[in-house]
Every structure is written in structure tokens, then in C-alpha cells.
Design a protein that fits this description.
This protein is α+β, with helices and mostly antiparallel strands. The protein contains ten helices and 38 strands. It holds the Pfam family Peptidase_S9.
Amino acid sequence: MADTLPYGSWPSPLTPESVAQSSPRVDGARLVGDEVWWGESVPAEAGRVAVKRRRADGGVETVLPAPGNARSAVHEYGGGAWTASDDGELFYVEKTDQRVYALRPGGTARALTPVDDAVRHGGLRFEHGVLLAVRETHGDERIPTRAIVRIGTDAEGAGEILAAGSDFVAQPALSPDGRHLAWVAWNHPDMPWDATTIRVADLDSSVVRDLAGGDDRAPLQPVWMGDDELLYADDPSGRWNLYRHPLDDDAQAVAPADADTGGGLWVLGTRWFAATDDGRIVAVRTHGGDEVVEIAPSGIRALEVPSVSGTAVDDARGSRVLVSGTDGGGRSGLWLVDLDSGAVDLVTGGAGAWGDEWMPTALTLETEGPHGPVHAFAYAPTNPDVAAPTDERPPYVVLVHGGPTSQVGPAPSAKTAFFTSRGIGVLDVNYGGSTGYGREYRERLKGQWGVVDVDDVAAAASALADAGLADPARLAIAGGSAGGWTVLAAVTTTEVFSAGISRYGVGDARALAEDTHDFEARYLDGLIGPLPEAESVYVERSPLSHPERFRVPLLILQGTEDRVVPPSQAEAIRDALAAHGVPHAYVLYEGEGHGFRRAETVIDSLERELGFLGAVFGFETPGVTPLELD
């Protein structure tokens, strides 16, 4: 018989240590001959990205051993930090110096680019014998220059510029005959989900033409279907769908759907579809959750890939396709799909440290908010050994994703299960501005950051409480980066939440506009308004402009090396809380950037978050000391 214990105080096998080590994140994958190669984060090694391979005989070994770390710093968020040749040579960006290196398994790395502290590389692609990269060069000015370069693989050199002429470039693709280069380009103040252009250069004549794009269109990921035809995603209908575009003819839609094949191009390695040698297409379709489909002349069929969130189609060769993502049980994985046989082979991941009985199931919610429907996923407290008193409703943590143009799917993270197994529910909200529901939903946030996001998370939380699923007096809100902004705005402008947890959150929008890196330097033009014209709106919306409105306990977590939202923002929030006598705790993690990667940081921050919730909501937290608040 299950024990009866108050919500929040349930014993759980999900320790902070096990959460920190659970389901390493897959960071790109590639088919190399008969082998499968993939990148994998290693939390126990300060979050470094190793590259591993599964040989044809099934054995797994590390191609990039410690201390090597395949991490790009282009746009600060990086992505595309490694690739491989067809004959098994690894090319990667080393985090410590941002140079490109080549490495044969078991050999010694050799540098392909020179020492230059001003230069970063990312978005690596090895296509038809050519190594391509996005190169970012920093100078005396705040705005760096970017170009697509061809990097020689035989000797060290700076690389040959193939494409430039815009503020941003991404996703280079070389035609099979080597004559044409396609890429994605965009300029300030647009972000890559606002307006982009797909450009094609004739490398013999240097003639460049714009193939797709324009105002209110954001084409992504050009892929060659032959020497003279491109496949890409575009959203003239308001949903990212696929298009085939011969260079000498008009574009034609490919199997359009009321779903998105595409998303926010935050990192350079993101890929939503791939084409096989015989012209079949494997694509992700997203509407809240992800589905993987094959598009062929014979029709469209769903593939039995378990990934429902964060799904990427990493590579395709012959009839084999690599897909990575997270399944409905919250397990990250990489799957090898054979389109001919229908077989789906788990390459790595796909297993948790705990049984399925400990993992909560996503309840898809849609509620009406002040600005239209709001989408969310609720995870109820889940523990096979404990029941709650019948007269008690559970506390809930309302999670606010970052971006704010990001998205969460119906897949509980290990952190979500850490809370739900202890009797604390979790509500994950895709507020207006999130991707995965089309352009109209995404653009609900235009000019309304700090309004729509706050109203939507408050509406979702209130609907959960009104339905009797959550204790309205014990609703906490938690988020990082842009999600931290929403946390701080929500606790100062609504009465819904009784506590807040902000990880590297934004408190002063003007300071963010002045201090943040170039990729997001004009992001706030669309989210709030251009400066200086909209300065009064920045002041009014910023939580730090109204320190007297802070009223509920707050936990503030921050990394010392954060260049996106620097520690000065967190320290200003801490000082405002102290000045107004609001209970709070401030934790600064040495060596962490924008997002916590080190195992020891993940462990400590989980313990502090649980101890904070226990302290403010009045329940015991077995194994974790309640957090003392200043």
C-alpha cells in the first residue's frame, strides 16, 4: 500500500546527481560509411561535447577524447561545431580557441585554421569533398563580420571567402557538381524567424541571386536535390513547409501541412529535414509535438520514430536516416531509420536511470487567454510509492522557456521528473511568441514582450488551478534568460504566483539592448520597439524600473561568464530585493555561461530550487536542506 505524504515531501530516487548525468544531449549526427557518428555532451566533464562513433560491428568508441571540446561560439549560441568526411576524418571547432581541427580516430589533431583570437567558426558542413564553415570575425566595432568560407583540409590556412555581404549567414550547401553555393542570409533588425533570404552563388562567375525570401518570409535550410534544384523550408502560408525550386523555374510546394517543418535558427547545426539519394524526403512536422514523416512519390507516411520534442533530421544516406530528439518519456536519443525496411534502430540514449513509472505523462492543455489560445503541457505529481492526502492540492512550478522564440514539446525532462516525483507538479507553457504553432502565434509577441508572455503564463496557471489540479496559493514560476524576464515581470505585475526562480534572467531591457551580443542586438526592436523611440516602453516594462513591485520570494541563479545576460542584471535584481526587504537568495556560479552545463552546477542548482520551494511553500524536502533566504 502506498504511503500518504504531503505534496512536495515525497521520497524519490531521482537525485540531483542522477539528473545531472541523465540522457546526455545528442549534438549532431552523421553517417560515415557503415558507421554512425554523433556529438554528445558530457556533464561530468564540465559539459564538453565529445564526438563518438558506432562501428559497423556495433562497438562504440570516442573519436574526440578529452580534453577536446567541439563547441562553437558563433552567435554565442554556436552550433554545427563538427562534421566528418565520408572516409572518416573528423573536422571540429575547438571551444578553447575557436580554430578548426582535423582528427583521424586514434590519431593526433592538426589545426586547419591559424591562431586568431578575433575569429570564430561554426556551422561546419563537409559536402562533395569540400569543408564549409561560417566564420565570424570580431574587431574594434561591436558588430562582427560574417562569411561562409571554404577551409582547406591539407594544410593550415585562413580559408577562402565564398559568400558574404549580409549581417548574418548560415546553413551553406554546395551543389553536387560544385558549381553553386546556397545559403541563408539575413540582416539586422530581423531575426532568422522574421525575414531571411536564400541566396545562390555561381562559384564560376561569382554571380549571386536571391532565390527565396522577403518581408514576412523566413526560408531555411537549403538542400540540393541535384545540380540545379533546391529543397528548402519557407513560410508564405504562415507555416514552414517544404518547397522544391529549380534554378530556372518557379518554386513548388511539397506536401504542405498545417504544421511547421522549421523553427528558430538559434544554433547553426539545426536541421529539420533531409533528402535521400533517390529523392525521398524525411521531415519533422511540429504542431505542439513533433512527428517524423517520409514524403515520397507514393505518398506520405509517419515513421515509427519515438521522438516527440526537439527532433532533428541529422543526415541521410541511401535509405538510411539519422533522427535525434526526445521521446514521450523524456529520454534523449539518436535513432537510425531504414526507409526500405521500416526498421528503427536506437543508436544511443533512449534509456533513463529510472523506470517509466517515475516519469510523468504530458497532459496537453489549451486555454483561452486575453490574447487568444494558450498552449501548455501539464505534468502531474507522479510517484508509484506515495499518495497525497485527499484534501490537498499540489503545488506547481510553471516553467517559462527561453528565447522567447523557442518551444517545448510533450516530453518531460529529467528535471521535470525530479519535481513531479517529489509531489510538485510542472506546467510547461508555450506562450504567444513560441514556435511550433505557426507565424501568427509566434508574432503575437511582436511589440508585446512583457505583456503577452506574462498574460499567457498567468492564464495557463490560473486555468490549471481553476480546474482543481493545482493549489492556487502555491504556484511558483521559473525560467531562464528570456524566461527569467517573464518570471520577473509576472511576479511584479500579477497576483497569480507566490514565488519565482530566475536563471540568468533579464531585469532591465535597456541594459540588455546595450550589453547583449550582436546576434540579439536588435531582437528587442521587434519584441518591444526600436530605441530611442520606444525608450519609455522599455522603462515601463522592465521589472527593475519598479523595484517596489517585488513582493514574493525569489531565487536568482547566474553564471559568471554569461555574455548574453551579464551578471550585472542579476546583481541589480538582488540589490532591489534586498532594498525592499523581499526574501531572496542569489547564487553565482563560477565559469558558467548562458545556460548551466557543469554537473556540479546542475546538482547544486537543483538542490537550491527544491530547498527554495520547500522553504516558501512549507513542506519538508527529504535529503535537501531548506534554503535560507536573505
